[in-house]
């Protein structure tokens, strides 16, 4: 934890530069190159530390036999030993490590922070959520069992609130950079087609997409979990399946085929933690957060999260 605190500022700055879209074209390109270099060096160092712990074998066999808990050792070492493509190209291991270091931590933490803010600010929605999670825990207790994946998938209020939090406060507001694989034509602002050549770099910002009034209506800037979600934004009614909840107006995990590989894990992780939190506590905002809007306390450093934490007051329920 101490090491993470010491490196967090520089690391977040590097990640922010790697995703920047600000400034003129040349400045943005230089900033992205500098940021990527820092992130890549950090990921390489993490892999090197993991490899010093020795080789870790048997991951595939352990998972196939239904006993993944038998695999012990640092995560980075497991990646290095069990990613076939990494044997051919070290950059694959490096990029996988970077994904775990950044996308697998900051994004989910920021989602839960923003979710907690919105619930603390809106007691009515918090109560609806608590009724739902209380029923889930009571059902599991009555049946003398632990929570299961299907329990989390049936949290309708939780799902809609998470969807709305990710719409208003996407964890990666700049999106990710893509390269056109072939020549294409897109509609320009004047209604005319614009030819885009193969190899052109582009990005679609979820922040701008999610706050487009033409796509979402006049209440685009309002927190409204009950809005009319499209079927594809709602897993087509099948909660947390291995699909991406995205559409032409909604892309918190970006667009396939290279969308977030941890999207379902992140949803499950967030639902478990938030369920326990709001089952056990009533939560309200506390100074210095109280009285401030969310965009006043958060900052876009590649991932969108709080500048100095979220201050709340907890009241024990159970």
Automatic annotation (TrEMBL):
The principal location of this protein is endoplasmic reticulum
Keywords for the protein's UniProt record, in alphabetical order: Endoplasmic reticulum, Heme, Iron, Membrane, Metal-binding
Cofactor(s) needed, names only, are: heme
**Cellular compartment(s):** Endoplasmic reticulum membrane
Pfam families, A to Z = p450
Q: Cellular component GO terms, alphabetically?
A: endoplasmic reticulum membrane
The record's GO molecular-function terms, alphabetically, read: heme binding; iron ion binding; monooxygenase activity; oxidoreductase activity, acting on paired donors, with incorporation or reduction of molecular oxygen
Q: Which residues bind heme?
A: 260
Q: Which domain of life is it from?
A: Eukaryota
Q: Which InterPro entries match?
A: Cyt_P450, Cyt_P450_E_grp-IV, Cyt_P450_sf, Cytochrome_P450_Monoox
Q: Enumerate the PANTHER family for this protein.
A: CYTOCHROME P450 4C3-RELATED, CYTOCHROME P450 FAMILY 4
Q: Which family does it belong to?
A: Belongs to the cytochrome P450 family.
The name this protein carries in UniProt is: Cytochrome P450
Q: Which organism encodes this protein? A: Aplanochytrium stocchinoi
């Amino acid at each position: 934890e101490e090491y993470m605190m010491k490196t967090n500022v520089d690391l977040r700055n590097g990640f922010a530069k790697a995703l920047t879209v600000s400034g003129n074209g040349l400045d943005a390109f230089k900033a992205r190159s500098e940021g990527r270099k820092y992130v890549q060096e950090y990921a390489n160092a993490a892999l090197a530390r993991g490899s010093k712990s020795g080789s870790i074998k048997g991951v595939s066999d352990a998972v196939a036999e239904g006993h993944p808990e038998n695999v012990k050792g640092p995560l980075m070492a497991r990646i290095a030993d069990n990613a076939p493509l990494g044997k051919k190209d070290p950059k694959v291991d490096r990029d996988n490590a970077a994904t775990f270091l950044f996308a697998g931590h900051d994004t989910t933490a920021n989602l839960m922070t923003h979710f907690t803010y919105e619930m603390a600010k809106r007691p009515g929605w918090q109560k609806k959520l608590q009724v739902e999670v209380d029923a889930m825990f009571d059902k599991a207790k009555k049946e003398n069992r632990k929570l299961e994946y299907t329990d989390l998938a049936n949290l309708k209020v939780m799902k809609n609130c998470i969807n709305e939090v990710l719409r208003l406060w996407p964890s990666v507001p700049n999106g990710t950079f893509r390269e056109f694989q072939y020549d294409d034509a897109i509609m320009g602002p004047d209604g005319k087609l614009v030819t885009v050549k193969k190899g052109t770099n582009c990005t679609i910002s979820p922040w701008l997409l999610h706050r487009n009034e033409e796509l979402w209506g006049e209440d685009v800037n309002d927190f409204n979990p009950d809005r009319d979600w499209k079927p594809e934004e709602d897993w087509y009614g099948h909660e947390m399946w291995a699909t991406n909840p995205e559409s032409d107006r909604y892309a918190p995990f970006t667009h396939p085929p290279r969308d977030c590989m941890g999207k379902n894990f992140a949803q499950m992780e967030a639902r478990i933690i938030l369920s326990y939190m709001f089952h056990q506590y009533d939560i309200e905002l506390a100074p210095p957060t109280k009285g401030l809007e969310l965009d006043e306390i958060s900052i876009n450093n590649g991932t969108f999260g709080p500048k100095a934490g979220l201050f709340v007051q907890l009241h024990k329920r159970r």
